[in-house]
């Protein structure tokens, strides 16, 4: 899922937050007032929340009532086009400010924990799963309770995560496993405007990784992004953004080469889109340009050339959604996707440039007060410049279901299918299908446990190779203070490949400390 679907045509794909058992305590008139305000965007929602609190400060008087109000206020946020984390954080700040002085610490903790669950599932904050890596999202989800620092009409949100983990198979190999201890430091800065109209969001961060005994695996990744929203009118908004990042391929990636060091790559993206409401309908149109380049690495027999993988990607699309019934909002979506490689042929003499498309129908839904989600089905395909490659046509499917089973229990199930690039000789692409779920359980006021399971299949087209992958994670999150969280995770991953040389299994144990200010 690229910038277009995740950021420009985001409304059909947003994870829909829902009202659970606690939200029943919020008066229906308040729920309706916030829902109507949210139709005019984030600022209108926050202003509506301020009006609700001014009229009925009792809604923030206790941790339980404040958490219930936060849940109702957060429900529309995943539908917004733009950066959503600051919206969750501003919801926290407004509710805490309205709480009695003696209750503010407890209210902040309750509201922050409540909305952090939303943050963990918001598609603009939790990136889609990368091909070949079916593990968790970020080790520690963003903290919706962070207060930030006011800088004029902006708020600055710094955060840092420090982690150490043990990996018993750092090269993701079938035999000859090599283990090591690894340390990571991940600082991040986010800047959000506080304007009455329009919005600007910027972010910069780094992921610095060091291996105790295998320094050649050390990496220094970074990312930057900037995104602006122009409120042309209450019914029309324009989104403009761009990002730049430098990362490396995980050793378990199907396309990872056997270099002496991980393969680095740089990505540059620019995107724009417009959303417009006509009556009960939301219309979206947008486009994106992506530039990705790979670095060469040394192998056992000399330098490995990765320049044949450098490419541009052009994405464009439209969607329309009917919002007349909040419990069931159907949509249609059509996306075009052009991929152009710098070299007309790769190192194996294959022409990799291609044209693709997807056409889907789906809906956002709320089956009952505690169950919501999104599902779509359709068709997708790609045709390639190389006459030896057949056109790939396959069903498209995307689903997300969240069940708020209780005040302290959440269950998430997801499904996704995509057509991914490959460098495997003789194959134009592989079809990646993943099915997974996560259970989160509040064990104590400051302690949360989770279990995550995912299975995936990579079916390489025109060759016999098929990779089956499994991922199991179990962990605990303990909030030491309002701003500091401690995490302990165990993760097991396995791949069984039609080409046995790509099979592997891996055990990892993580200990991380995260803080948001």
CATH topology of the largest domain: Porin
CATH architectural designation of the largest domain: Beta Barrel
N- to C-terminal distance: 30 Å
Overall spatial form: globular
Strand content: over 45%
Specify the number of helices.
6
Judged by helices, strands and strand pairing, the structural class is mainly beta
CATH class of the largest domain: Mainly Beta
Number of domains: 2
Number of strands: 21
Average per-residue pLDDT, rounded, comes to 83
Runs in which pLDDT lies below 50 for 5 or more consecutive residues are 1-24, 123-142
What's the order of the H and E elements?
HHHHHHEEEEEEEEEEEEEEEEEEEEE
Radius of gyration: 23 Å
Features:
517 residues; mainly beta; Porin; 21 strands; globular; disordered N terminus
Report on this model:
The protein is mainly beta and 517 residues long. The chain folds into two domains: 3-14 and 122-516, Porin (Beta Barrel); 22-74 and 85-116, no CATH class. The chain is 15% helix and 50% strand. The chain has helices at 3-8, 28-38, 42-55, 63-74, 85-98, 104-121; strands spanning 149-151, 154-167, 180-193, 199-211, 219-233, 236-248, 264-278, 281-294, 297-299, 302-304, 311-322, 328-341, 354-368, 371-384, 392-406, 409-420, 430-444, 447-460, 466-479, 484-497, 504-516. The strands form two sheets. The chain has an 18-stranded antiparallel beta barrel. Strands 9-10 form a two-stranded antiparallel sheet. A hairpin with a 2-residue loop joins strand 7 (264-278) and strand 8. Helix 2 packs antiparallel against helix 3, helix 4 runs antiparallel to helix 5 and helix 5 packs antiparallel against helix 6. Mean pLDDT is 83; it is low at 1-24 and 123-142.
């Amino acid at each position: 899922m690229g910038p277009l679907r995740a950021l420009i045509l985001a409304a059909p794909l947003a994870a829909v937050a829902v009202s659970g058992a606690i939200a029943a305590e919020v008066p229906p008139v308040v729920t309706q007032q916030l829902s109507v305000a949210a139709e005019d965007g984030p600022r209108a929602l926050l202003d509506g929340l301020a009006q609700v609190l001014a009229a009925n400060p009792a809604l923030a008087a206790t941790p339980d009532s404040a958490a219930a109000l936060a849940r109702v206020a957060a429900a529309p946020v995943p539908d917004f086009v733009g950066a959503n984390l600051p919206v969750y954080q501003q919801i926290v700040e407004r509710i805490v400010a309205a709480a009695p002085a003696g209750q503010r610490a407890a209210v902040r903790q309750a509201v922050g924990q409540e909305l952090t669950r939303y943050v963990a599932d918001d598609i603009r904050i939790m990136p889609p799963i990368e091909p070949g890596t079916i593990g968790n999202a970020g080790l520690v989800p963003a903290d919706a309770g962070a207060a930030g620092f006011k800088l004029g009409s902006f708020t600055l949100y710094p955060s840092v995560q420090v982690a150490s983990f043990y990996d018993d198979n750092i090269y993701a190999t079938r035999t000859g496993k090599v283990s090591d201890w690894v340390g990571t430091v991940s600082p991040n800065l986010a800047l959000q405007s506080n304007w009455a109209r329009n919005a600007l969001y910027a972010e910069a961060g780094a992921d610095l990784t060091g291996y105790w005994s295998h320094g050649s695996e050390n990496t220094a990744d970074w990312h930057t992004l900037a995104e602006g929203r122009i409120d042309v009118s209450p019914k029309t908004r324009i989104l403009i953004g761009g990002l730049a990042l430098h990362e490396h391929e995980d050793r378990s990636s199907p396309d990872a080469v056997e270099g002496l060091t991980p393969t680095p790559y740089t990505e540059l993206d620019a995107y724009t889109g417009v959303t417009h409401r006509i009556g009960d309908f939301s219309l979206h149109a947008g486009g994106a340009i992506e530039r990705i380049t790979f670095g060469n690495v040394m192998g056992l027999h000399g330098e490995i050339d990765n320049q044949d993988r450098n490419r541009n990607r052009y994405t464009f699309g439209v969607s329309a959604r009917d919002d007349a019934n909040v419990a069931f909002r159907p949509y249609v979506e059509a996306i075009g996707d052009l991929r152009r490689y710098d070299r007309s042929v790769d190192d194996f003499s294959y022409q990799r440039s291609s044209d693709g498309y997807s056409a889907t129908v789906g809906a956002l839904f709320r089956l009952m007060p505690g169950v919501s989600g999104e599902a779509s089905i359709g068709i997708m395909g790609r045709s390639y410049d190389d006459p030896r490659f057949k056109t790939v046509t396959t069903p498209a499917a995307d689903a997300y279901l969240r069940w708020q089973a209780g005040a302290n229990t959440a269950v998430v199930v997801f499904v996704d299918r995509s057509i991914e690039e490959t460098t495997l000789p003789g194959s134009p692409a592989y079809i990646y299908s993943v099915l997974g779920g996560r259970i989160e359980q509040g064990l104590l006021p400051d302690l949360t446990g989770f279990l995550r399971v995912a299975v995936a299949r990579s079916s390489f087209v025109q060759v016999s190779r098929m990779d089956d992958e499994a991922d199991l994670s179990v962990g605990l999150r303990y909030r030491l203070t309002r701003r500091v969280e401690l995490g302990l995770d165990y993760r097991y991953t396995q791949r069984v490949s039609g080409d046995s040389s790509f099979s592997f299994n891996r055990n990892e144990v993580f200990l991380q400390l995260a803080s948001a200010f």
